[in-house]
Q: What sequence folds into this?
């Protein structure tokens, strides 16, 4: 089994890189998707969020209003840390379950936004940081529909790219065209040992 953890700041292209790794025969896990589709629909998690933040972070049908939740946690580091403490053990449990069902020869790529911040590198054989220039990062996050102020707030909530680059086994630079990132992914995958 081979496990590759991909990280990088918001808007840096983790998902694009992971999809191209997947195209080389890896099985892909998206930690944000696990949160969105699994944890934020789990009644126990929803109850904990309601108890901590109040009903204003819920939709009329009782689901989690992710925009309202983000507005509560991103400006307040202590609230963000509380949320991460609630979710991260459940995310790693989902990884462990997937890995256990994958078989010995399976190669995995896992998108992990806070890989280094939360000390999760021990889960992986190799780590990859997808990085780009701060100007392009801000532009790409704003293109997702956030205001420049909200985008900057989310970027600041994560470690600086330079720190992640220094800790990663491999770095993919994503300032250019998508094909440039795809070419780098191909080189990376060819350099990895078999599962």
A:
């Amino acid at each position: 089994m081979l496990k590759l953890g991909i990280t990088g700041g918001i808007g840096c292209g983790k998902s694009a890189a992971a999809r191209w790794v997947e195209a080389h025969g890896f099985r892909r896990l998206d930690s944000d998707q696990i949160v969105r589709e699994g944890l934020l629909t789990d009644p126990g998690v929803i109850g904990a969020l309601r108890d901590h933040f109040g009903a204003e972070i819920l939709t009329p049908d009782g689901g989690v209003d992710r925009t309202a939740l983000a507005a509560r946690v991103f400006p307040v580091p202590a609230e963000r840390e509380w949320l991460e403490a609630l979710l991260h053990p459940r995310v790693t449990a989902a990884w462990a379950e997937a890995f256990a069902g994958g078989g010995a020869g399976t190669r995995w790529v896992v998108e992990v936004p806070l890989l280094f911040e939360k000390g999760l590198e021990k889960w992986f054989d190799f780590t990859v940081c997808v990085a780009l220039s701060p100007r392009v990062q801000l532009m790409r996050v704003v293109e997702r529909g956030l205001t420049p102020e909200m985008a900057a707030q989310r970027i600041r909530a994560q470690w600086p790219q330079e720190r992640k680059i220094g800790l990663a086994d491999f770095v993919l630079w994503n300032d250019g065209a998508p094909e440039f990132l795809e070419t780098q992914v191909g080189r990376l995958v060819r350099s990895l040992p078999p599962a």
Observations:
- Strands lie at 2-7, 27-30, 107-111, 126-131, 170-173.
- The mean pLDDT is 92.
- The chain is about 50% helix and 15% strand.
- The radius of gyration is 17 Å.
